[in-house]
Queue: 4 jobs
Job 1
Amino acid sequence: MLTDIEIAKQAKMKKITEIADGIGISADDLEPYGHYKAKLSEELYTKLADKPDGKLILVTAINPTPAGEGKTTISVGLAESMAKIGKKAILALREPSLGPVFGIKGGAAGGGYAQVVPMEDINLHFTGDMHAITAANNLLCALIDNSMQQGNPLRIDQRRILFKRCLDMNDRALRNVIIGLGGKVNGIPREDGFQITVASEVMAILCLASDLADLKARLEKILVAYNLDGEPVYAKELGGCGAMAALLKDAMKPNLVQTLENTPAIMHGGPFANIAHGCNSVRATKLCLKLADYAITEAGFGSDLGAEKFFDIKCRYAGLKPSCTVLVATIRALKYNGGVPKDKLTEENLEALEKGVVNLKTHIENLHKFGVPVVVAINRFHTDTEAELALVEKVCTELGAEFSLAEIFAKGGEGGTDLAQKVCAVIEKGEADYKPLYDTALPVKEKIEKIAKEIYRANGVIYTAQAEKALREIEALGKTDLPICVAKTQYSLSDDPKKLGKPENFEITVRDMKLSSGAGFIVVYTGDIMTMPGLPKKPAAFSIDVDNEGNISGLF
């Protein structure tokens, strides 16, 4: 059996100019990065402004498990399958972070015969967007410390600096650091810390900004610190937002690539969903809607995280109206939720499946709350039995969700034509009536509790003293009328990764809050979620290599 990278290397890619031409993009609107990837020009937005929008399809999943669900694979395959049935579709995905690539999760380019290519480029440096975001973020950090070094005209309180440095790598040793050591010329000693680039507010801003002017306005609103009088200090006061925007100028342009079957794909932005808002850029999604009849996008991790933030943050700000949601699940993952150990998942176990399918039920019910119809895509494995598949299909039917078996990993677009047809049929019914879960005008605690009770199914919310203090500060700034972005474990509907299925009789603990004023949301930290992940005992980096001819191996 071939590995993902071996399959990708066999791909017969078309030149990116040919891919662009197929969706009506001229060479003048391409900025090529080699032969097989390119950025798309600013002028393209103006040229397409009067074109009607296509239909928007969101791909999400049940809570992830070690058994894997294949959400990105289904997203890629669905776009390929649309082409197989004669539909014009474009894929809108997030860019991978180097942290997971070298850590435990691996890349984010799909798998098997449903991948975006060139796979090695995409999973490594791609077009440099992550590095640009890192540089812009850290420029602001340097300006903060330099302002204090140069007489501290803003009277910044070094004990209350909120904005952290970032790095696109899993490095737990940088979570908490001391900087400015070495004497007077090397700055003021203080506590600092790093977060992974995909969790930074600059990443969120880039993904939510409508254009360069909006980008600069959002950068200026970043709350960086408090001064010695307890007053807020914003990025605008430090004077470097123009330079930050200059670093991000090219990173603002979406990236055009292709699937193994030469279906166009636009990849742009990459915030994690467990510690950020988990969606690709608004600009990329809107571009796809102008260029195709169907735009297929995904939101990170399970629907309790990525989809909730897609509906309550991204759609709200961008004015998007999704027509259909595809919910990805596997029989193996549902059995895992029913208590089956990882090494027994290939064995038929209807009792465990019956128990674990409550996780799927909860996600279907949750998604219906946003007024968008659901199609359940079972990512099929050869070990799935007919009895197991029949049980899941019965559950979906009872909950009013379409059901489709997808063999996309093994067969590419050919393995998802039934899914594509059912998605199109659902859209043609015109039953979608998108609505967010809550009104942003509600008090912060009411918004949090609405998410906790209606999406996570918690009994209530507990707030630590630190969370209460942070909330009072946000209220004092008059910034309460913003959406909520919950940082939570992806492995459970609760804030405890060990509680599988549909946990009951639990409460969500909010340990802290942070105002992301530039991005336009309030981050709520639950459980022990970290914004700088660490590497596992055996990182994926151990398996990655390059030979003397420059051929990379070990990526997945």
Job 2
Amino acid sequence: MDYKMIFQLLGGLGLFVYGMKLMGDGLQKAAGEKLKRMLEILTSNRFFAVIVGAGVTAIIQSSSATTVMTIGFVNAGLMNLFQAAGVIMGANIGTTMTAQLIAFKLTDIAPFILAIGAALVLFSKKKKTNDIGEIVLGFGILFVGMSMMETAMKPLGELDSFKNLILVLGKHPFMGVLVGLCMTATIQSSSATIGILMALASNSSISLAVALPILFGDNIGTCATALLASIGTTKNAKRAAFIHLIFNFTGTVIFMLAFKLVLKIVPMFGGDVQRQIANAHTLFNVTNVFIQIWFIGTLVKIVNKLVPGEDEKSSALVLEYLDRRLLETPSIAVGQVIKEVTRMGKLSSQNLSNSMQAFLNSDEDKMNLVINNEVTINYLNREITSYMVSLSSMPLSERQSDIITSLFNVVNDIERIGDHAENLGELARSRLDHKIVFSEKAISDVTYMFETVKYCVDNAITALENSDLESARKAMKVEKEIDKMERKLKKEHITRLSSHECTPKGSSVYLELLTNLERVGDHSNNIAQMVIGSN
């Protein structure tokens, strides 16, 4: 084998994998919210989970990415092992789409497809058309890479060493399984391994009998990505990775035991060896799912024994909804960011209540709770911002990009609400330390203002969580009332101060309390405006 052949093969493989990724990114951006909703409506129904897994993988063009994403969900506690098993099984069906596309043999018109995709990407000003252009461009690059691999492998059939290797693999199918396993574990893409097999088949360099064991082995090899992704995760996430391995290993064993039968069945579907390889890939995964879907409970029991015990309870300083593995699917990650930001917002709202209870009741326990919660809020601010920086560099649709840009400001506003809650806690401490007494009217007024501000905050957070325009409008309307209320209460306080109903010692504390509450209203208004602007 000369260097030219090796370089052409590697170049073709690189284009093939890049085209697949480009097509997947374009499909993901075009699908956008639909992809997010597919996973959000996931239930414990195993059949529905399989459909979701297959659909997501067909969109993102990578079963490994779907499995890694699933491990991320399990790690974040958003998906249980029963759901994860269904999604992982479905992902194996979804990944067969790539092989079926390759079998259509569009290599002759690939340059034309490439030209159309390039024109859409380069000359279209509309983001949606640009995303479609990216899909078409990726599709074209995939087939150009396939064409290069076919050309590079054409001389292989004439080499004595390659003929001898094929003879050995033909006599020892289990060696073929090992070859497929090692190839896929190295390349980290089962679709790329199948692409190489189909390129060899196009030149009649490999028979179906030799290709099938390699094909079965690559299903085990693709588990390497998930196993690597589970390092450093929770025990449940590790169990999800082992479900993937057991599922594919069991399927390979079943199909190798029925190897002669499979060799007879696959040609019945018709087509040349390339199409037969694609059909065998689909048959393997669909049959494997059909056999094992009834034993998800058993799979879960097995992995619970393989990875025994429970995780230690973690501190509050964790991200509940975000996982770096979810960055592989940006459209899903955007939805998870909103959930984590909402969690941060609810914690800030809760801290506002704690600080006011501390102030009104001189409650030291609440004062300490405010300080502890503020540590968590600051942690979430740093970590969510860091996550969004990473996410903003991923392929996002225009709408998703706008949402992330807006959320940078929202996180800042929520963090500032937390700061004002902490300020109120400090004012509560000052009131307790200096034994400051306020008139009944002052306490009544500030309680009413707090309840109004809390209503404003909660509506803003609800608007963010559910994209609820009505709640956003309520928050914006109430915020105007808060501004008027602050001016009115400050004026009345000065009057009481002049008539000696209140002491000068508590005046600065009271006025600062009103100012902090009014500013909380301002930040809530900013969040509500972002929700309205994003819809």
Job 3
Amino acid sequence: MHAYRSHTCAALTAANVGETVRLSGWVHRVRDHGGVLFIDLRDHYGITQVIADGDSPVFAELEKVRSEWCIRIDGDVLARDPGLVNPNLPTGEIEVFIRDLEVLGRAGELPLMVFGDQEYPEETRLRYRYLDLRREAMQRNMTLRSDVVASMRRRMWDKGFREYQTPIITASSPEGARDFLVPSRLHPGKFYALPQAPQQFKQLIMVSGFDKYFQIAPCFRDEDPRADRSPTDFYQLDMEMSFVTQQDVFDTIAPVLADVFEEFGGGRKVDAPQDWPQIAYADAAKWYGTDKPDLRNPIKMQDCSEHFRGSGFAIFAKLLEQEGTEIRAIPAPTGGSRKFCDRMNAFAQKEGLPGMGYIFWRAADNGEMEAAGPLAKNIGPERTEAIRQQLGLGVGDAAFFLGGKPKSFEKVAGKARDVIGAELGLTENDRFAFAWIVDFPIYERDEETGEIDFEHNPFSMPQGGMEALNGDPMAVRGFQYDLACNGYELVSGAIRNHKPEIMLKAFELAGYGAGEVKARFGALFNAFHFGAPPHGGCAAGIDRIVMLLADTANIREVIMFPMNQRAEDLMMAAPSDPTSDQLMELGLRVIPRD
């Protein structure tokens, strides 16, 4: 017999009754029923109930066993009485009578219990992550993650892609976030960087003549943490293709992701890739208040400025006299009660706004429909009726209004739309709803200084090429795209700019001279002079994909050893102070901050 086990703790069934077996695992829980000990023995695969009474030669030793001790037992497989069968366990028809015991690893007092669903502070869970990971939900999440990655790999190979690895130690390359710098011992005073993404390398792979590339790539960014973003590192399904259009990229990656969500989505509805809408960035902001809309919610915001221009509601009327302002309406089907409207008004105040105007429609005493709320009284019945007809609302419905320059209120409007959809039961929770966001602006203008800088990916090919760059920079759109799902950005990509003269012009408009471009992106710029093919690709965030599939809103629930929100590894005590010898070897000195 094997030194530790003949079966896993999920393998035994009624067919094994009468056999002598060996199991190893952790003591999940112990129950003492007056001279009979019942132990749930757990390993990665499942649980088997093992028992002992006074007839067992190791009964006295078993009485000392506690939760999370790692043990090996030998015993006889018995059939449970019919009334004691547990249909929720694969091993629920049997139990193992213990004949021999070996303690493989004792456990001291536990800082958190593995058995049960108790909530523990995140600090405790991260400090003792190895215990937290033993819990059923975490075992399930990490297994899911591994299976998702394996599925992605198979599907990419099936589409004719090969996996290539790009460097982890490279040069610093500004790509929208802070680099993690690595000091060089052999070149004192100089630094490598951990790659924010394999962006330049995968483009160089295309220049090198490899037609299709993918990689499960680690990326490193010194970012401020959020619930859906790791502050240090993350993994992405990275891909690039030569001689492709934007639609070719969509047609390649969309079926891969749709199949992954079908496979691991637990029966939730997955929109077919051919039904994923392509929404212009400007329209996404106008309709949903975000470039990562949750389309499970059917609410679409609309511009209602004309109904308030010159109206009796002075706040909006005066606002519209300023250039670049508008009034946007958020329809709220079935939200037509003063109580709900007051609740949404309070929501806006919590978000830092003075409030949120509203109108709701109800049945009047004479049986006709009437508009109610402060806005309705100020703008009059004709304007109110025009708003209702534009929004397609009726009795029992409401609409909420925000005004100003769109960038000042769109984020709150988007949040309000999500809250309204959730509270009114309009959001279809049992579904994954995807949308491609396209036509991103390449540039933005600083309102204070008037200077132009990149708003989005500087490596994207501008739509219209050099001709577009010779016009109004603010009108330039890039062949850049994101894929949104249920309110999260899952994919980001672009058709790349592969022509050096267009690259120089694009950076020149943002205030970067040719010398700076060559210094920062020298390898890419030089490579483009040697027959670079048109190419494009994207990267899908694995952590976020698994987070959605696991139905959790916290990305740390699907990362095996995550940092906390202060970018600290509590388990490994990182970051840590370097030793004097390490600093001397690297020629570095730490200057304390005041």
Job 4
Amino acid sequence: MLRTHICNELRAEHIGTKASLAGWVDTIRDHGGVKFLDLRDQSGVTQIVLHDDSMLEGVNRESVIAVSGVVKNRDEDTINPKLETGMLELHADSITVLGTCKSVLPFEIRESTATREEVRLKYRYLDLRNPEIHKNIVLRSKVINFLRRRMEALGFLEIQTPILTASSPEGARDYLVPSRKHKGKFYALPQAPQQFKQMLMVSGFDKYFQIAPCFRDEDARGDRSPGEFYQLDFEMAFAEQEDVLTVAETVLYDTFKAFSEKHISPAPFRRVTYADAMLTYGCDKPDLRNPLTICDLTEFFSQVEFAAFKNKPVRGIVADCTGRPRSFFDNSLKYATSIGMKGLGYITLTEGIFKGPIEKFLNDGQKNYLISHCGIKEGQTLFFISDAISNVNKYAGLIRMWLGENLDIMDKDAFEFCFVVDFPMFERNPETNVIEFTHNPFSMPQGGLNALETMNPLQITAYQYDIVCNGVELSSGAVRNHSPEIMKKAFKIAGYSEEELEKRFGALYTAFQYGAPPHAGMAPGIDRMVMLLADEETIRDVIAFPLNGNAQDLLMNAPCEVTEHQLREANVKIR
């Protein structure tokens, strides 16, 4: 055996015994005749003492070695309380080099996160040696294992669905795979197991789940990795919206409780309608750690002679800016203009009197109304946001978050969950002016067939819901449309003929004609969950081998060119 113990395993009871360790050389130090090295493996670090310099021949930092020797107490003045093994050390009597390392590293292992991402990802195997990044991948494994056990305990059955499937319009670009056997035809990598999990419900499985890989050809963001991602995909037969939300509350609360010491909002998580979220928080992914809310002042300003707000929607945000210097308000204006706003008005209540650029346009009655309607207290400031209807909520939401961050009123020691419900079923494409599905085309409209036949499509809401944590969308889900007649009508409104419906979604559409139970589900994103639990800014720091922001694998040099022979076999010609 190369080792009798792992590096973080030695304790006081091992003093005086022989032990063998193996790992990477973290540091080498010379203390005048006696040399020390820190040996690191996945579990931690142990200090090694060497009394013979010849033992270090051929050994440098990040070499892989096996060490044997006697475990001893450290001298009192060399105890390291930061290490779990800091009370002891291994006095080596032999060292075996198992793997040599180049003398010059592309970056310092423990400082890899400060290195350019291109370099980190090119040498990802070195980046993953950084204990902080390494810890994230270990956390990810434990979280997935916990999720799997929790779902099984709730009676869900794990079933794998295909990776090679048919292309379907689900909101993002497909990754296409050419068929060798069927010339001119293509598979697609699944954007989600959506249709398969619904057909599992038709097949008589009550509760399905899967740690599902999903593939979408979309651009990267801090909380979105290009290419592929993983989600806890689950579906329930004979279920309504609250059944799914209860499962999500149970599993997510238990998971975050198991892996974090932060405060976690208890079940039942707050339910916020889409309309209220857009008006109160300025977005459909509200960060509830921020106590600030937005009020609608459109009707109020329709009675005020102020040209800048005339015939436009107006939003207000009350914030306590007591003691803030003039530069704070100047910076708020700079931020507003940087995001596209034309300005940012405000008034401050000081000794019962409003002060600020807009004060002169308001009479006493209007000022009193603002105080009571917005709940303004002494020393607080009311900020005004006004723009076109397409932008005003977005701008108000961004100003709300800027104020929350810069006033330092965000609760950074909490995970605040909420469900956003009642999403609109349809929306009008601003470029083409045609009506399209807002999100998932397989959602059940509230009101069923009657709503589709009698209501303005833009006023129909769906049994569709998102789960949001600290402003990050963890999941979307829906009660599914399991009726062929309702599906046919919904797709017709979105511009699909029955022939096209059968062509694009033929398997699901046909399956529903053979007795489909009501069913519903959702799919929390595992990458985002781990990112939050690890307190990382970017999702790539919780994925072992991620693509970069330009959807490239710098380690394996993908995407890459292939041979003409491979192209011919796949019946593909490059344009």
